[in-house]
Write a structure and sequence with these properties.
Layout lengths: L14 H4 L18 E4 L3 E5 L3 E11 L7 E7 L5 E13 L2 E12 L3 E11 L5 E2 L4 E6 L4 H24 L2 H9 L2 H25 L4 H12 L5 H8 L4 H23 L2 H5 L9 H24 L1 H29 L9 H24 L4 H12 L3 H11 L4 H5 L1 H9 L1 H50 L3
Parallel strand pairs: 2-9
Antiparallel strand pairs: 1-3, 3-6, 4-7, 5-6, 7-8, 7-9
């Protein structure tokens, strides 16, 4: 049985085996609990998911008062993290003290913690757990599929950003830089609204779970994510504004992230051992600037190429978003077991409320509809990679990966309302185009009938009154 509970009878030792003589006559009801101890091969065992490890152990100092009806079982606290099988034992008796040597195979299935222990069971008595236990830590391993996926997505993103640079309206970009109202609203929403919002949501949802509060807060103080530019294209937002806001957001993160982490963040995690990922933020900024610059150069020196690229921008962007969402969910399917109702609720509330607040503020401040949509998208989408990077620096493993369930859940639910709007808009526009085409065809048919009628009338008049 693959998921066998993990217990096996290790030893059933008869009274004759435990002690030579007439020990069977002892009245065990009036004896103190028997003394015995377990020694595992390891004090702590670190494993990676989907791996197995053979572990040996020794049970010693078994008192003869146990009698003949007892058994030892090897168990663990968390069957989701690991399970035990292939238990084998060899028992011996030296000077009236029994000793049991054995081993078992431990299979790691999910990242987390568990304790392996031995349990003594006797008929008529409560089960007794060993004082000794083996602490097991299961962490995540990066396999070939993860590496291929990450490299593929990185290449895809580079191509997309080259395309962004190729279709970038430089005059519009110049106007935004000269009068940066949109970026100012975006900075206010990104680095004031979202951090406070993430702190408040985390406080009410994860009051007793400090790590999850930290995961949500790190998400809230992160800069805008690159996928915001893709959604700006799909939803007919202002691409120039989106790219400008993303770049400014990532640059502002150098100062704003430490500010929030050492103020509100200190209330969540008071020992303050934070490592701000400056290199990660800088690399994100570079991955934005370099391919966009290449695209701008193509726009200047190869305009025919950029015209062809602009036609592929929306479909390629949509494919990228779907690929990241679908394959990311498949490769990180183990995370689904870590998702609780509260994690899913918090992961939905933060970005979705960010969209609404960003759009409302932009609309109240009389921004054009395209700019308002763009500001809403930039507000709601955070850089998941930076949040996970910070968690890995702040927390030990597997705690960091377990806490990463918050940004991972966020990455899965953040695109949902935007994709829904896109597909509804797509269907609505198609219906509208069909109705417009039908009206145009009907109008053309009427005009054709009128022309035919007039021509026939003129022929009749000419035949009746020839010149």
């Amino acid at each position: 049985m693959h998921y066998w509970p993990g217990y096996v009878v290790l030893a059933i030792i008869s009274a004759a085996h435990v002690v030579s003589g007439a020990v069977n006559t002892v009245d065990t009801d009036h004896l103190q609990p028997p003394l015995w101890a377990v020694q595992f091969e390891y004090e702590q065992l670190n494993m990676t998911m989907r791996n197995a490890q053979k572990v040996s152990f020794v049970i010693t100092a078994v008192e003869p008062a146990l009698g003949s009806d007892f058994e030892f079982r090897v168990l663990n606290d968390n069957g989701d993290v690991a399970y035990i099988d292939e238990v084998t034992t060899v028992s011996s008796n030296t000077n009236g003290v029994a000793k049991v040597k054995g081993n078992f195979t431990l299979h790691a299935t999910l990242l987390g913690y568990t304790q392996v222990y031995v349990e003594l069971q006797r008929t008529g008595y409560e089960a007794v757990r060993s004082a000794e236990s083996l602490r097991v830590i299961v962490t995540r391993s990066l396999n070939l599929a993860d590496i291929i996926f990450n490299i593929s997505i990185a290449c895809f993103v580079m191509v997309i950003y080259v395309n962004f640079g190729a279709v970038l309206d430089l005059e519009d970009l110049k106007r935004i830089v000269i009068r940066p109202v949109g970026p100012a609203i975006g900075l206010f929403c990104q680095f004031l609204v979202m951090p406070v919002l993430s702190f408040v949501i985390g406080y009410f949802l994860f009051r007793e779970m400090i790590e999850l509060r930290l995961g949500l807060f790190f998400l809230g103080v992160s800069p805008a994510g690159g996928s915001s530019n893709i959604f700006a294209v799909l939803l007919n937002g202002n691409l120039s504004l989106s790219i400008t806001m993303t770049a400014i957001s990532n640059l502002a993160a150098f100062g704003m992230m430490p500010l929030w982490i050492f103020t509100l963040g200190a209330l969540i995690f008071r020992d303050g051992n934070f490592a701000i990922p400056y290199k990660s933020i800088a690399s994100v900024s570079c991955t934005l600037v370099v391919p966009i610059a290449i695209g701008v150069m193509l726009q200047k020196y190869a305009p025919e190429v950029t015209k062809k690229m602009s036609k592929l921008l929306k479909p390629v962007s949509l494919v990228l978003i779907l690929a990241i969402t679908i394959f990311g969910c498949v490769l990180n399917s183990y995370m689904w077991k870590l998702f609780t109702t509260k994690i899913l609720i918090g992961s939905c509330i933060l970005p979705w409320l960010g969209y609404v607040i960003g759009w409302l503020i932009a609309t109240v401040l009389r921004q054009p509809p395209k700019d308002a949509i763009t500001i809403a998208i930039e507000t709601g989408i955070q850089n998941i990679g930076i949040a996970i990077f910070m968690l890995n620096f702040t927390l030990p493993q597997p705690q960091a990966d377990m806490t990463s369930a918050v940004p991972m859940a966020n990455s899965m639910v953040t695109p949902l309302p935007l994709l829904l709007i896109y597909f509804l808009k797509l269907c609505f526009c198609r219906k509208r185009e069909k109705s417009v085409d039908a009206e145009a065809n009907a109008k053309e048919a009427k005009e054709s009938e009128l022309v035919t009628f007039m021509e026939n009338g003129m022929e009749k008049v000419n035949s009746k009154y020839p010149q």
